[in-house]
Amino acid sequence: MVEFALWFIIILFLLQLSVLFYLLTAKRKRISIEEEVNAGYQKWYIPFSSYTTGSEQDVPDPDLYGSTRVLVIEKILNHLIDHSNRKIDKGKLTHAAHLHLSRSYRLYLKKGSWSQRVNTLYFIEEFHMEDLKDDIWDLFSKSQHYDEEYRQSLRSLAVFGEERLVDVLLQDSRLSQRMIKELLRRFPFSIIEQLKSEMDQSKSRLPHSLQLAVVSYCGEKKDAASLPFIEKRLSLPNKEIRLKALRAIAEIGSCSDEELLLDFFQSSHWEERMLAAKAAGRLGLSEFEMYLNDLAGDREWWVRFAALEALRQLPEGASLLKEVSEHHEDRYARDMASRLLTMEVS
Amino acid sequence: MMNQDQFTFIIDIVAILVIAYMGIVAAVYVTLFLIAGPKIRKEQGLEREETIEETAVNQDTFPVSVLVPAYNEEVGIVNTANSMLKLNYPTHEIIIIDDGSKDETASRMIRSFGMERITLATRHHFQTQPVFEGYRSKEFPNLFLLRKENGGKADALNAGINFSKYPYFAAIDGDSLLDKDALLKTMKPIIDSNGQVTVTGGTVRIANGSEIRESEVRKIGLPKKPMVLLQIIEYFRAFLIGRLGLSHMNMLLIISGAFGIFEKSRVIKAGGYNTATVGEDMELVVRIHRSLKDEKSKQRIEYIQDPVCWTEAPSTYASLRAQRRRWQRGLAETLWIHKAMLFNPKYKGVGLFSLPYYLFVELLSAVFELIGILIILLGILFSFVSIEWAILMTIVTVAYGSLLSSLAVLLEEWTYHKYPDIKSILILYFFALTETFWYRPLLVWWRCEGLWMFLTRRKRMWGNMQRQGLGEVENRS
């Protein structure tokens, strides 16, 4: 027993010594790499900055090697994009990235660790390195998990307008509405139109999140040309799509026929009443003042809040709110109108 | 009367039980390390700033209400509010809830941020002590102050939820500082999972010894006081091994009260914070687990390893004792409230592993360790344990305990590697070796006191310690 305990102690201490040795070695190496990268960054930032802001024509060629070279150039270019006060010539920055980083990045995408691949995908998008598009597609095709690598591959491909993604969007139901919107924001106009036309014509069932995302994206872009496409969705049986369409109309701030909103003021779904109120406020529809007054006493807090906010947005909004705060039959409506009167719009 | 043989026999049995218990606990910790390690290793070197760039500008990023309950926090409240205002997040509101402070918490807020009184019109998801005043900053329209009658931290948080307007809320201690990207990083799992993650928390780290300027941790350093140093190692072990391991299996039962993000509708459905316990943070998370399992929901609770929140650790023995007694009591109360979930297969991993883990490892370990220490000490004194055995057992405990600590330091190096030099690692290693001799016995005793307080149902109170204020941590610890 004693012998066993002694062996156990020896093993534990040996393990601990190994961890300590590893930690000290790794720390020393990390500190040395950081020092090298910082020195390289200090030395080469100005040449790259001069080149990308237009005063210099030749791409700087740092006298660095291996991974340090990649890390330094990556850090400089990333900083120039994110923090430079001067206007960057993005074409030149992309050219420099292609020249110095493409080979290493191709290798990382094929053989790098998970975090190295994900970092590389971010930088490829950031530096707009389109020549690596097919390498990303290869990586994406082999992805098995719906994780950050998969999502960033999609983002990078979307930036390069990769048309093969349309099929992915039409088929992959794992993609969330937010994720699809991230892609839509990166896509060229032609792909958005292609998706809208698929939604109008396709007989097969398209992923629900895709439908929501496209409608929502049109609202976010305040794309008045999409109004017919959006208004068509106000009459669909799916509540969530109707809600997105109502929100999009509020965001765009216009509607071809205001009467389309009328039914929603009395909808049995409080979310529809709330969004109808929001839309009326954004569109400044004074003719709906009576409905908004009614909704100010709605049983749902959010509807009351939206109706009072909408009243405030109408011409004479402040006096309308004062009127509600003094004379509305509902106590909650009066309280909330008073609260809104003490707060400026944020 | 018991003869000496019988006595020795009983002591032997108890000693074997204690040793077997320690062995099982050791195996559990090693298993959790083996679960947490690969995930941390996989993400080592990931450029986290890049991963949140999109979230920072995305209009679809959920807005968040930041709730800061405060009771007699005049020293740190302005710093905390400043730290919240610097958060990098598209849309958030900050609600400071002054829970009937007797000091200048409210007046300092009103003065420092030019706050004006507003009319209150709030929903009442939960009954709370009366909220008698609301203020809004003129300078920062997203900063609010609520003044209410004293009702405890849980009551203050419930009042904050009532007032908040966004679908997610972050609960933050009044003495915490957040990393400027804390909300973005912690909300990321919720956003990426499209709402499947309902609660998230991040790593809380100790700020004592670090350089803090303008409410931000600028340079990480180690404190001088050994008791604070050992708390740092403890936090590494708890967060990087324990919580990450449990989170990986969706069995995490604690999202630190210092910083956590919750889906408001889920919390409302679960009934809000329980005002009858001092462990309101853990109790809420267990109740959420319970409601998720009852509904057969696929939503989950997740923890991220990023260091997002900085807190001031107790730097006096009195405040450390008060904190540990409160934690232990809160844990006991939560386990008692949810005893029906223990070993209940309906609650799957939470009922069959997580709750038993918290009961036997986190709660009762103090009792087992105390028995172990007493057997060794009394055994040597009354000669029923040989000196050789006692020394051997002590060395095993030191070797095992410090190995776990060193593994936690290893995980820290793999994730944040924030300590700037080799010396820091050596210091952490050295103090980890001393833990068994003085720090651990103290904790064991205080935790037993906490358990006793639970059993005797002593009066609850706000768990404030004597604060120095994080802005001054650098010079004081």
TrEMBL record, chain A:
The record, for Gene3D superfamilies, names:
Leucine-rich Repeat Variant (1.25.10.10)
UniProt cross-references to Pfam families, sorted A to Z: HEAT_2
Membrane-crossing residue ranges in chain numbering: 6-24
What are the record keywords, sorted?
A: Membrane, Transmembrane, Transmembrane helix
Instruction: Establish whether keyword Transmembrane helix is in the entry.
Output: yes
Q: Does the keyword Membrane apply?
A: yes
Q: Return the protein name.
A: HEAT repeat-containing protein
Organism of provenance: Salimicrobium halophilum
Q: What is the lineage of its organism?
A: Bacteria, Bacillati, Bacillota, Bacilli, Bacillales
UniProtKB/TrEMBL annotation, chain B:
Q: Which Gene3D superfamilies match?
A: Spore Coat Polysaccharide Biosynthesis Protein SpsA, Chain A (3.90.550.10)
| Molecular function terms, GO-annotated | glycosyltransferase activity
Q: Where are the transmembrane segments?
A: 6-35, 240-262, 357-382, 389-411
Cross-referenced Pfam families, in alphabetical order?
Answer: Glyco_tranf_2_3
Which keywords label this protein? Glycosyltransferase, Membrane, Transferase, Transmembrane, Transmembrane helix
InterPro entries noted in UniProt: Nucleotide-diphossugar_trans
Listed PANTHER family: POLY-BETA-1,6-N-ACETYL-D-GLUCOSAMINE SYNTHASE
Q: Which family does it belong to?
A: Belongs to the glycosyltransferase 2 family.
Q: What is this protein called?
A: Glycosyltransferase, catalytic subunit of cellulose synthase and poly-beta-1,6-N-acetylglucosamine synthase
